[in-house]
Amino acid sequence: MRIVIMAVGSRGDVAPYTGLGVRLQEAGHQVTLATHGLFEELVRSRGLGFHPLPLDTQEEMTSRLAASGTSSPLKVTLAVNKVVAEHAGPMAQAMLAAAREADVVLLTPAGWIGAHVAEGLGLPSMGVYLQPMTPTREFPPCTVTTRSLGGWGNRKAATALRGLGQQPFRKVVDELRTELGLPVMKPDAWLAQVEAARWPICYGYSPVVVPQPADWPEWNHTVGYWWPAPDPDFKPAPELVDFLAAGPPPVYIGFGSMPVVDREALSWLVVTALRRSGLRAVVNTGWAGLETAGDNVLTVSEVPHDWLFPQVAAVVHHAGAGTAAAGLRAGVPAVPVPFMVDQPFWAQRLQGLGVAPEVIPFRRLSADRLAGALTEAAGRPDYRRRAADVAARIAREDGAAGVLRVLEQLPRG
């Protein structure tokens, strides 16, 4: 089959689908990843087809979110949605062009317009999600809060959020459905139709981390992680190899695709925390542009997590779904510093698994607090023992195989 995966978002929202795509190709399918031009090299270097989608996520999301701040998860979620909505027209047309070359379409959460495209073209489709999006009584919507609203409230809030998130797209979606010869529908009616059709979703995280809620429908599947495909040309820089060998395992500090208003202040905070903890560190510049210096600090750009994380004592990160998963896979303790959207949810899960001493929301981050958490995470062996146990359980899972099983059950046109 010709499979198109529609992946919208930052690098962490795209990279796992390279691994899924490679596994699908190994099973005999032809896979194209439709995503932003920023990630074309990432996709093509893994042997996958590439189709461009509009929106420079690094430029637009970083500048917009840095300007709006990250104090309210709901505010940030709506801001991200607004950025995508502003490009919804070109995005819909790019998805339509990609889907015309497909036999089946796989959709990430931010790529949900592709479901209208698939419906209009008569193509089977399914969700391949990295975050729990189906409403449940067991926890609130993961993109806006970690505080339970009670069983009824949790489910009701998640249901309302799905409809609310579609409102900025209504004009574009109505025009798209008209173009495809489909009836125009209100968001809630369309979502009810999707639910009635038993539209399948595979969730690409471990049930060890988030057990499947008992009230989810049977066509939702928590299958386990699918991991980013390794870079076939990766060779670690000699200075990184030498640094790792020159002393005890360092800690890793990086905030991935997160925007910051004052990178100099954050860089000073990180260096100060490291000095107070006495730990060595590998610091990833990331989209924040961290700048660090010192005998016990090495600053790097992109280094594959699956290569680096097993060699460190602990990882400090923004608790994005992909980075949190990489730390769990490596069996290392974590210090989660969530900024926004679903990151507080994953940070809470890491603490609940006993692999993180505390969650430090970015707005409450200080040098003293980071130094204390680093010292505890890297110095207490019980965190590493629990992390190793989680890693061993995750290693027995095969999320991509779960997607293949569901894919083979899709109706054919």
UniProtKB/TrEMBL annotation:
Where does the Glycosyltransferase family 28 N-terminal domain start and stop, copy by copy? 3-139
From the Swiss-Prot or TrEMBL record, give the protein name.
Glycosyltransferase family 1 protein
- A biological process (GO) annotation for this entry? vancomycin biosynthetic process
Extract the Pfam families matched here: EryCIII-like_C, Glyco_transf_28
Q: Where is the signal peptide?
A: none
One GO molecular function term of this record is: hexosyltransferase activity
Q: Kindly give the PANTHER family that the UniProt entry links to this protein.
A: STEROL 3-BETA-GLUCOSYLTRANSFERASE (PTHR48050), STEROL 3-BETA-GLUCOSYLTRANSFERASE UGT80A2 (PTHR48050:SF13)
Per UniProt, residues of the Erythromycin biosynthesis protein CIII-like C-terminal domain are: 290-408
Classify the source by domain of life. Answer: Bacteria
The opening ranks of the lineage are: Bacteria, Bacillati, Actinomycetota, Actinomycetes, Micromonosporales
